[in-house]
């Protein structure tokens, strides 16, 4: 998926190899958890919805990827208290 977010073109993928190729070609690329986290941080996606999406896609990623995204939600959103990978 390609689009513009914050005035910048973004390439968003759920495919690790496509992500690596895009980065090596100099394209601004995000994995799906990055998109979810950034949309929530910008207030464009409700926090609960972001957490639900991250939980739903957890199985598709290596261990730690979704956990890291959940921690990022805590860091960028002051109201995200209590959200963690273990809850």
Please report which band the strand proportion falls in: under 5%, 5-15%, 15-25%, 25-35%, 35-45% or over 45%: 5-15%
Broad shape? globular
Beta strand count: 3
SSE arrangement, N to C: EEHEHHH
Please give the largest β-sheet: 3 strands, mixed
Cα-based radius of gyration, to the nearest Å: 13 Å
Mean pLDDT: 83
Termini gap: 30 Å
Structural class: alpha+beta
| Residue windows where pLDDT falls under 50 for at least 5 positions | 80-87
Helical run tally: 4
Question: Total domains, how many?
Answer: 1
Structural notes for this entry:
- This protein is α+β, with helices and mostly antiparallel strands.
- It has one domain.
- Helices cover 48% and strands 15% of the residues.
- It has four helices and three strands; from the N terminus they run E-E-H-E-H-H-H.
- It has helices at residues 16-24, 32-41, 47-57, 65-76, and strands at 2-5, 8-13, 29-31.
- Strands 1-2-3 form a three-stranded mixed β-sheet.
- Helix 1 links the parallel strand 2 and strand 3.
- The chain is globular.
- The protein starts with a strand and ends in an 11-residue tail after the last helix.
- Residues 80-87 have low confidence and may be disordered.
Summary, kept brief:
The chain is α+β, with helices and mostly antiparallel strands. 48% of the residues lie in helices and 15% in strands. Helix 1 links the parallel strand 2 and strand 3 (29-31).
């Amino acid at each position: 998926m390609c689009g513009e977010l914050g005035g910048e073109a973004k390439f968003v993928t759920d495919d690790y190899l496509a992500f690596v190729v895009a980065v090596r070609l100099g394209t601004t690329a995000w994995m799906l958890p990055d998109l979810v986290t950034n949309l929530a941080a910008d207030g464009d996606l409700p926090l609960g919805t972001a957490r639900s999406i991250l939980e739903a896609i957890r199985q598709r990623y290596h261990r730690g990827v979704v956990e890291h995204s959940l921690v990022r939600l805590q860091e960028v959103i002051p109201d995200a208290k209590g959200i963690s990978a273990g809850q």
